[in-house]
Amino acid sequence: MDIGTKKEKLWYLKSADLFSELSFDSLKELDRLSAMKSVPKRTTLYFPNQPSDSLFLLKEGRVKIFRLSEEGREIILDFLGPGEIFGELSLADEPVRTASAETVEDSLVCTLPAETFRRFLSSRPELAFRIIKLMGLRRRELESRIEDLVFRSVPSRIAGLLLKLIEKHGEPSPGGVQIKLRLTHQEIAHLIGATRETVTEELNRLRHNRIIDFEKRRIIVRRRDWLTELSRSR
Question: In what order do the strands lie in the sheet with 107-113?
Fold first, then answer.
């Protein structure tokens, strides 16, 4: 599929938060170093144990980062939206992938060879620092999720997840905030370490109490303050 003109590609690069402060000349160089392509939904971009030699920038669509347990159970680490990078551990000399990445919508993905991008960063310390901060943030988020699994109840974990999804994928909606990401109850269960049946029961309870609502597989949060209070419980 034709991606479009050079101008359009530069616009995508500039619109990504990570690259928004780069000069026009730096953006042109990044454009030259990268490759952008359309990727259909449910396409796996990489698997565990594959060489970790590139990173990716998501221009449009959604990507799921996940692992499989020894029993074959899917453990979702994150859902990423436009403007986010992934596979960034390739910059830290990660020899092979430790997770999988799969598109959950038709997507536009930009690929950057890790070694080439390292050289690009060597003369742009501000950008390198922002990527280091991103890596640290994602590590802290993973540690927080592990802590939640150990110490928090399922209702608290669901409330916390919905609040995080609002921050990343929320948009104003009549009477609340709609989470643009379409999630099945099974996917939510994989995100919080619970069974689908328990997730369905808790979401229905939140809906009955008019804290959330559903519209075409999308969740609308009506009472964010109640979710905040619930997320703090054990």
Answer: 35-39, 107-113, 54-60, 85-86
Would you tell me which CATH number, out of the four given (3.90.1150.10, 3.40.50.10490, 3.40.50.300, 1.10.10.10), belongs to the domain 152-231?
1.10.10.10
Give me the helices (H) in the chain, please: 6-15, 24-33, 114-122, 125-151, 154-169, 185-192, 196-208, 224-231
Residue 169 Cα distances to 89, 136, 139, 144, 163, angstroms: 24, 21, 20, 19, 10
- What is the C-alpha separation between 18 and 131, in angstroms, rounded? 8
Question: pTM for the whole thing?
Answer: 0.80
Q: What pLDDT, in 10s, does the model give residues 90-116?
A: 998 789 999 999 999 999 999 999 999
Amino acid occupying residue 207: R
